[in-house]
Write a structure and sequence with these properties.
Blueprint: H1 2-19, H2 33-64
Helix pairs in contact: 1-2
Length: about 60
Amino acid sequence: MNYKLIVYILSVLTTTFALSSVDLNKVFKQGKVVEANIFAVLLILVISQLVAQFIINFMEVSKIL
Protein backbone atom coordinates (compact mmCIF):
# COMPACT_ATOMS: atom_id res chain seq x y z
CA MET A 1 0.00 0.00 0.00
CA ASN A 2 2.83 2.41 0.80
CA TYR A 3 4.59 1.83 -2.50
CA LYS A 4 1.50 3.07 -4.38
CA LEU A 5 1.74 6.48 -2.73
CA ILE A 6 5.42 6.70 -3.58
CA VAL A 7 4.72 5.74 -7.19
CA TYR A 8 2.01 8.41 -7.48
CA ILE A 9 4.24 11.11 -6.00
CA LEU A 10 7.15 10.19 -8.24
CA SER A 11 4.93 10.14 -11.31
CA VAL A 12 3.56 13.62 -10.52
CA LEU A 13 7.07 14.98 -10.05
CA THR A 14 8.36 13.34 -13.22
CA THR A 15 5.40 14.51 -15.29
CA THR A 16 5.73 18.04 -13.94
CA PHE A 17 9.41 18.05 -14.87
CA ALA A 18 8.65 16.67 -18.34
CA LEU A 19 5.88 19.16 -19.10
CA SER A 20 7.80 22.15 -17.80
CA SER A 21 9.55 22.43 -21.15
CA VAL A 22 6.27 22.60 -23.08
CA ASP A 23 4.94 26.11 -23.67
CA LEU A 24 1.18 25.70 -23.44
CA ASN A 25 0.59 29.45 -23.76
CA LYS A 26 1.18 29.12 -27.51
CA VAL A 27 -1.75 26.71 -27.76
CA PHE A 28 -4.18 29.07 -26.03
CA LYS A 29 -5.29 32.53 -27.08
CA GLN A 30 -3.19 35.45 -26.01
CA GLY A 31 -4.06 36.62 -22.49
CA LYS A 32 -5.53 33.27 -21.38
CA VAL A 33 -2.72 32.47 -18.96
CA VAL A 34 -4.98 31.25 -16.15
CA GLU A 35 -6.75 28.81 -18.45
CA ALA A 36 -3.41 27.54 -19.75
CA ASN A 37 -2.15 26.98 -16.20
CA ILE A 38 -5.33 25.13 -15.19
CA PHE A 39 -5.02 22.98 -18.30
CA ALA A 40 -1.38 22.26 -17.48
CA VAL A 41 -2.27 21.12 -13.95
CA LEU A 42 -5.06 18.88 -15.23
CA LEU A 43 -2.78 17.47 -17.92
CA ILE A 44 -0.10 16.72 -15.34
CA LEU A 45 -2.61 14.94 -13.10
CA VAL A 46 -4.05 12.87 -15.95
CA ILE A 47 -0.68 11.77 -17.32
CA SER A 48 0.58 11.07 -13.80
CA GLN A 49 -2.43 8.88 -13.08
CA LEU A 50 -1.91 6.87 -16.26
CA VAL A 51 1.81 6.41 -15.65
CA ALA A 52 1.32 5.46 -12.00
CA GLN A 53 -1.42 2.96 -12.79
CA PHE A 54 0.76 1.38 -15.47
CA ILE A 55 3.68 1.03 -13.06
CA ILE A 56 1.51 -0.32 -10.24
CA ASN A 57 -0.20 -2.83 -12.54
CA PHE A 58 3.16 -3.90 -13.92
CA MET A 59 4.52 -4.43 -10.39
CA GLU A 60 1.45 -6.46 -9.39
CA VAL A 61 1.58 -8.64 -12.50
CA SER A 62 5.28 -9.26 -12.08
CA LYS A 63 4.62 -10.55 -8.56
CA ILE A 64 2.25 -13.14 -10.00
CA LEU A 65 4.85 -14.38 -12.46
